[in-house]
Structures are given as structure tokens and as C-alpha cells.
Design brief:
Blueprint: H1 5-30, H2 39-44, H3 48-74, H4 78-88, H5 94-97, H6 99-105, H7 109-118, H8 124-132, H9 136-166, H10 168-173
Helix pairs in contact: 1-3, 1-4, 3-4, 6-9, 7-8, 7-9, 8-9
Length: 177
């Protein structure tokens, strides 16, 4: 019998260990996006099975993987995130899938940098270094290879939103929703 998403989550949560499960639950409660998870619900999740059940019932199977990946990366459990991504066949982020096209076609990089700086995805030093690059392509490469890579899924989500705002026609052409 093939493993379900819930089974895959249980395996990953088992690998986390007690300390990282505690961090995971804490970060899950701090998550600002809907649906939110109450602390009392995470406290009732006594083990990996309960935690996987909470994730699937709260977010659906598909979204449970996305949210779990987001949290695993945020708490520094990149190995477990990579394992979960691999075993679930979870698609790459839109930003990763379209990296080459974005590097070649985005041209309003200073406005994008302004938005990312305002949203605290990039710091002043990174902002200045990227703006100093000579071509739009080198600016986008520096943005991807530095701050967006460091910021993980949250940074990619923010960049996606900024690009939707400032480069909506390009984003829609690339398949953004």
C-alpha cells in the first residue's frame, strides 16, 4: 500500500525529535496566514501521529505539505524539508521554477528592491550591493542567489507578491495565479 501524505508527515515529524517538534509547533502557532492553529490544538498533539493529523485536518493534504515545508525551513530543519519535498513530489516554488525567465525578463528591479527592503526581506547592505550591479540580469541573479535564497519560502512568497504587483503581465504569462 502506498504511503499517504499523512504517513509521509509522520515519518518527517518522527525524524525531527522532541526539541524540533516543539519548535515546529511553536512556529505553527505563530503563523499569521489563515487558517491559524491555536496553541491548545498543538498542545493536544502529543506525538508525530497527532501532529500529522492536525496538519492534514487543518490544511488539507496538499496544503499540509506546503505549510510543513515553510515551517521546517523557518526552524532550520532543511534536511527534513528536503526529504519531505522529495517523498511527496512537492513542486518547486513558482520563483524556483521560473528563475531563468525571471532573470531574463524582469526589468524594473529597483522598484522590486524597494518593496523587498520595505518588507524587510533584504537589508540596506544587500539593497546597495544589488543596485550596484550593472545589468538587470546580474541584479536578479544577485537577488536570487543572496537574500531570496537566505529567506527561504517566506522570501520567495514575498517576492512572488511583489512581482505580481509590479510585473503582473509577465507573471501571468509565466503561469502565476
Amino acid at each position: 500500500m502506498e504511503k499517504t501524505i499523512k504517513d509521509r508527515l509522520i515519518d518527517v515529524f518522527d525524524d525531527l525529535g522532541e526539541a524540533n517538534q516543539k519548535k515546529f509547533k511553536n512556529k505553527l502557532c505563530d503563523r499569521q496566514k489563515e487558517p491559524r492553529v491555536r496553541r491548545s490544538a498543538t498542545e493536544k498533539a502529543a506525538d508525530s501521529i497527532d501532529l500529522a493529523d492536525l496538519m492534514v485536518t487543518t490544511f488539507t493534504s496538499k496544503d499540509a505539505v506546503s505549510v510543513s515545508l515553510e515551517i521546517l525551513e523557518a526552524i532550520g530543519c532543511r534536511e527534513q524539508a528536503a526529504e519531505l519535498r522529495e517523498v511527496t513530489g512537492h513542486n518547486k516554488h513558482f520563483i524556483d521554477r521560473n528563475r531563468t525567465a525571471l532573470i531574463q525578463r524582469v526589468n524594473n528591479i529597483d522598484a522590486i528592491l524597494d518593496e523587498l527592503y520595505e518588507k524587510e526581506i533584504i537589508r540596506q547592505e544587500e539593497y546597495n550591493a544589488i543596485r550596484a550591479e550593472k545589468t538587470p540580469q546580474s541584479k536578479m541573479r544577485a537577488l536570487f542567489d543572496g537574500p531570496i535564497n537566505s529567506a527561504g519560502t517566506g522570501g520567495k512568497d514575498t517576492l512572488y507578491k511583489v512581482l505580481m504587483k509590479l510585473q503582473s503581465y509577465l507573471m501571468k504569462e509565466l503561469g502565476a495565479k
